């Protein structure tokens, strides 16, 4: 089966409805084109709040929005649920595996790839089953299952020695995601779970933040890293700097000191992995099809206008594109998406010039704990309560859809007032994996 561009308007095919893909699509709303958005999932995911879903603060619905719903008023856009698996740049077709098992060849005039990244284990894929990363909704729900089940397991054990590994949570990586996760687990243990257990004191939960660098949040200025570290210390997170996580089993995590090479093993049933990302496999497919070399993270190098060299009608935006060492953050993807959408609209209306992409850095923000966040925007450096308020406003502004924004504000408010976290359901749909959290 093939979807062709018989209706006369240029056909723009977009792979991925994350921040990049969605912003290309929206920018093309009034352009004389037909748009097809291909995604392997049904929802646009707000990854910056995944850790709040993983720790029972927000529901999966609050941080995701159905792609079809988001595009319901964009008459020139259609959505295809399926996985992009191949590209033929001569025939101008994208091959997509669809949900019913069929394969579709979609003909394009312009192809935009915005398929993002996935968790990287730096050649240690063997530890992946014991150290889940956090890139998808499935990851967040699996982590939630692990964390909640660990407290339940500890409650069921009579001996303090046996409980210790269940109540030890190791987080590999001291970037924003690692810091946010570590802080949230301590918040969960010391505030939300208080008075809910009869045998254990959840506040005894040990949270280890294991980081290879010499300070947490290395993408922030040193003074904000310092303030974040102070808050983590106060919260009871144990930070270990200058160490690499060198092994993770179902029962322990091993670190090796980068300078002394000292090896330490901590009994821990829960290890979470936030130390790196690499391009999703489709980037490799694209690189081979277009005969281009990926960068060290598997990203696709792009020209100044974000098109691929030698392929002026193929574009890569967001985390998967490599240009000027731009960071893998939502703002780069959104601005890149709007840029590419604008250039394609102009080209389809007869323009011959292509403007280069210019990124405007709006800054960085990371949540540390309740009433503590750090925000950095140009000369403006905020931390503590003011940083936390600014962080909240920024995240609400960027969530997709009014309903998610209102729901999240209500949820945060209720959590602050009542100290509770209600999104803690864990499910066991698949009998094969039903016991997985207990391993
Ligand atoms: C835990 C976490 C916290 C973060 N926090 C922040 C933050 O605080 N601030 C910030 O600015 N950024 C943050 N980021 C980074 C930000 O989320 C990314 O930079 C942004 O999502 C990149 O957008 P994208 O469109 O390139 O890719 P994504 O948003 O990852 O979207 C990629 C889309 O492509 C789809 N896809 C992938 N492969 C295929 C295929 N073969 N076929 C079809 N569809 C496919 C996926 O389903 C997905 O919908 C965070 C990321 C994570 C994981």
Automatic annotation (TrEMBL):
What domain of life is recorded for the organism? Answer: Bacteria
Class in the EC hierarchy, top level: oxidoreductase
Record protein name field: NADH:ubiquinone reductase (non-electrogenic)
* GO molecular function annotations of the record: NADH dehydrogenase (quinone) (non-electrogenic) activity
Q: Which reaction does it catalyse?
A: a quinone + NADH + H(+) = a quinol + NAD(+)
Looking at the record, the residues that make up the FAD/NAD(P)-binding domain are 11-337
Q: What is its EC number?
A: 1.6.5.9
Which family is annotated?
Answer: Belongs to the NADH dehydrogenase family.
Source organism of this protein record: Gordonia rhizosphera NBRC 16068
Answer whether the UniProt record assigns the keyword Transmembrane helix to this protein. no
Q: Mind listing the UniProt keywords for this protein, alphabetically?
A: FAD, Flavoprotein, NAD, Oxidoreductase
Q: Which SUPFAM superfamilies match?
A: FAD/NAD(P)-binding domain
């Amino acid at each position: 089966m093939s979807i062709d561009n018989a209706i006369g308007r240029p056909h723009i095919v977009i792979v991925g409805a994350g921040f990049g893909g969605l912003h290309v699509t929206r920018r093309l709303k009034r352009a004389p084109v037909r748009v097809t958005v291909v995604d392997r999932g049904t929802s646009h995911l707000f990854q910056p709040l995944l850790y709040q879903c993983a720790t029972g603060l927000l529901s999966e619905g609050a941080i995701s929005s159905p792609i079809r719903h988001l595009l319901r008023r964009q008459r020139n856009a259609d959505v295809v649920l399926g996985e992009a698996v191949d590209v033929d740049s001569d025939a101008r077709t994208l091959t997509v595996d669809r949900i019913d098992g069929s394969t579709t060849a979609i003909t394009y005039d312009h192809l935009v790839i915005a398929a993002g990244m996935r968790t990287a284990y730096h050649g240690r894929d063997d530890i992946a089953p014991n150290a889940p990363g956090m890139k998808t909704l499935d990851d967040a729900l699996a982590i939630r299952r692990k964390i909640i089940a660990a407290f339940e397991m500890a409650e069921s054990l009579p001996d303090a020695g046996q409980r210790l590994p269940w109540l030890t949570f190791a987080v590999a990586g001291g970037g924003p995601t690692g810091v946010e996760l570590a802080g949230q687990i301590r918040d969960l243990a010391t505030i939300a779970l208080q008075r809910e257990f009869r045998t254990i004191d959840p506040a005894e939960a040990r949270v280890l933040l294991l980081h290879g660098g010499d300070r947490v949040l290395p993408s922030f200025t040193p003074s904000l890293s310092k303030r974040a570290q102070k808050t983590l210390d106060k919260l009871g997170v144990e930070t270990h700097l200058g160490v690499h996580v060198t092994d993770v089993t179902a029962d322990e995590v091993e670190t090796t000191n980068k300078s002394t090479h000292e090896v330490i093993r901590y009994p821990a049933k829960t290890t979470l992995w936030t130390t790196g990302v690499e391009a999703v496999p489709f980037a490799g497919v694209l690189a081979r099809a277009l005969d281009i070399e990926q960068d060290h993270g598997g990203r696709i190098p792009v020209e100044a206008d974000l098109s691929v060299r030698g392929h002026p009608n193929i574009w890569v935006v967001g985390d998967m594109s490599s240009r000027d060492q731009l960071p893998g953050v939502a703002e780069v993807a959104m601005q890149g998406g709007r840029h590419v959408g604008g250039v394609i609209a102009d080209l389809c209306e007869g323009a011959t010039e292509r403007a280069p992409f210019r990124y405007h850095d709006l800054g960085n923000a990371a949540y540390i704990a309740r009433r503590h966040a750090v925000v950095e925007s140009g000369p403006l450096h905020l931390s503590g309560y003011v940083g936390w308020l600014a962080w909240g406003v920024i995240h609400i502004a960027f969530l997709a859809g009014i309903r998610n924004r209102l729901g999240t504000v209500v949820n945060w408010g209720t959590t602050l007032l009542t100290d509770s976290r209600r999104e803690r359901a864990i499910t066991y749909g698949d009998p094969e994996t039903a016991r997985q959290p207990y391993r």
